[in-house]
Amino acid sequence: MSLILQNISKHISLTPEEELLFLSKTEIKHFKGKTILQHAGQVCKEGYFVNSGLLRSFNINDNIVEHVLSFACEDWWISDMYSLLSQKPGNLFIEVLEDAEVVVLTKENQEQLYLEIPKLERFFRILIENSLVANQERLMDNLSLTAEERFDK
């Protein structure tokens, strides 16, 4: 079973036919390190699932300082969620740090899959909820813990 199907099966069960339909709406791509997949100011049209390699999302402030929001390694999803969900220009870059193989799921195909396989809405809702909780914890840690405590955690 492919890694992305294993990832999905952690939260929902797909029939073999649904698995094939899901895979038919995705595309596997290979990228070299230092490739920028998403630029700040662009509308995000796709999400990425990492089969291998390492990606990061970050923004650059007015002083040209990079702030990393997240890393995505094997078996992780990454996207500019604000832009992907709102279809407004985002403020994140997504960069390939190490040569990577990723599964690309466009917003359009994701919406089609919601109609054809409704339980995928549950899957992506769970991912978004988990992300929200993790971001809230990270924000609280940044407000209440010392740098050393954050590093240890």
Task: Give a structural overview.
With 153 residues, this protein is an alpha+beta fold. The chain has six helices and six strands; from the N terminus they run ααβββββαβααα. Strands 1, 2, 3, 4, 5 and 6 form a six-stranded antiparallel beta sheet that branches. A hairpin with a 5-residue loop joins strand 3 and strand 4. The longest helix is centred in the C-terminal third of the chain and has 26 residues. It is globular and about 50 Å long. The protein starts with a helix and ends with a helix. The mean pLDDT is 94.
In short:
By secondary structure, the chain is of the alpha+beta class. The chain is built from 6 helices and 6 strands. Strands 1, 2, 3, 4, 5 and 6 form a 6-stranded antiparallel beta sheet that branches.
